[in-house]
Amino acid sequence: MSQLQIAIDGPAGSGKSTVAKAVAQLLNITYLDTGAMYRAVTYAAMKANLSFDDETALKTLVDDIQLDISPKSIQLNGEDVTEAIRTPEVTRCVSDVSKVGYVREKMVILQREIALNQPVIMDGRDIGTVVLPQATYKFFLIADPVERAKRRMLELESKGFEASLEVITEEIITRDKIDSEREISPLMRAADAIEIDTTHLSIDDVIRKIISLVKVEK
Ligand code: CDP
Fold it and tell me: Using CA atoms, how far apart are residues 42 and 46, in angstroms rounded to an integer?
């Protein structure tokens, strides 16, 4: 029997991570936040003062990196970066790092390895299209940009960051644009993905909807 694979893609703030985490718990399967991997690489590049245009330097960085991802924490070369990868500074730079081909190649290899031997739910931008094109279920979450910015603002405020709705809306739109227009594996709905507009749905509504569609073989 092939492994259960659930792909959840969509733009920033569409609710992917929260929903994927909850579905993983309900189904007792592994959750992988692929965005956290790109964030960790971005954090490492920022720390090393690399220019994001310098593909050779990024290649060396990615080749030497040790990433350990568990549902609770992300370790980068032995350092716990779980919180550090979520700062507004990293968020602002992550799309520029994740459009680099070699960075993507490396991350996709790691992601596929994780999906090989265990049932998984992964969230990201290219899971249904590139990482797991044969996924058992594919979902594409969307929501109005202002609603997405409101969600992100609440999240940032809860972590003690100051945030303005206008600035966050702008940043979300910019990130969506870079993610959707990049050459390699852009943010895109897979032809066979089920689209869910979460603008007027609660997190619980979305979780219920996904669970109702997923049949788990015992
Ligand atoms: O949580 P949020 O929606 O802010 O973003 P994320 O899932 O943490 O992803 C951060 C960034 O990583 C995205 O804006 C993309 O540039 C990149 N990413 C990607 O290129 N491919 C993925 N599979 C996941 C994330």
Answer: 6
pLDDT tens-digit map of 134-166 = 999 999 999 999 999 999 999 899 988 888 999
The residue whose CA is least distant from atom 23 of ligand 1 is 124
Q: Are 47 and 178 in contact (CB under 8 A)?
A: no
| CA of 99, closest atom in ligand 1 | 20
Between the CA of 216 and the centroid of ligand 1 the distance, in Å, is: 27
pTM: 0.95
Q: How far apart are CA 170 and CA 17, in angstroms?
A: 21
Question: Residue 114, exposed/middle/buried by CB under 10 A (0-12, 13-18, 19+)?
Answer: middle
Ligand 1, CB within 6 Å, residue ranges: 12-13, 17, 34-35, 38-39, 94-95, 98, 124-127, 175, 179
The answer to whether the beta carbons of residues 38 and 27 sit under 8 Å apart is no
* Cβ proximity of 151 and 203 under 8 Å: no
- Cα–Cα distance for residue pair 31/13, rounded to 1 Å: 18
1: pLDDT strictly greater than 90: no
